[in-house]
Write a structure and sequence with these properties.
Layout (H helix, E strand, L loop, with lengths): L1 E7 L12 E5 L6 H12 L11 H9 L9 E6 L2 E15 L4 E10 L8 H15 L4 E7 L3 H9 L3 E4 L5
Antiparallel strand pairs: 1-6, 1-7, 2-3, 3-4, 4-5
Length: about 170
């Protein structure tokens, strides 16, 4: 089952500083293999387990979507090793006739680097970009069985809205 969460942005989000880590935007096409490898590491321990992805899956999920823009994709790395991708997040802007909604899409953190602030670092960049684009709330969906993900999002201010997708 899917849970839908939302965070209201009452003031400009502060970009978190995590000594020892850096963040940069996605560089195409060079970063796609690193993103795919990170995804495999990040989802390896999840139940239910997402299926493995190939480059074509990334293209279909990201490149081929009207909401996707490379500058709204951030990669986290260890300072001094920008080629070592340890986290990633994408800001999607879902649009309908009624509204445009910023959505967290694929927050990934390498299991060896979890609980060190990498997720907060990435989310702070995403939330700041959403604010600067004029949005005052950010939404996301995750699987209810992914308890650590749900707990993480709630710890940074996301609250459950519903347990079904609005799509």
């Amino acid at each position: 089952m899917v849970i839908h969460l939302c965070k209201q942005l009452a003031e400009p989000p502060v970009v978190v500083d995590r000594p020892g880590f850096g963040v940069r935007t996605l560089l195409l096409p060079d970063d796609v293999p690193a993103w795919l490898a990170l995804r495999e590491r990040a989802v390896a321990d999840l139940t239910p387990q997402p299926r493995p992805w190939l480059h074509a899956d990334y293209e279909a999920e990201m490149f081929d979507k009207p909401w996707w823009h490379a500058e709204r994709n951030w990669l986290a790395f260890v300072d001094g090793a920008p080629e070592q991708t340890i986290g990633a997040v994408t800001l999607a802007i879902r649009a309908s006739n009624a509204a445009r909604i910023p959505v967290v899409h694929w927050l990934l953190v390498d299991p060896h680097w979890r609980r060190r602030g990498v997720g907060q670092l990435l989310m702070s960049h995403l939330e700041r970009a959403a604010w600067e684009a004029g949005f005052r709330a950010v939404e996301l969906e995750t699987h209810t069985d992914w308890a650590a993900a749900v707990a993480f999002y709630q710890s940074i201010g996301y609250a459950p809205v519903r347990t079904s997708s609005p799509r």
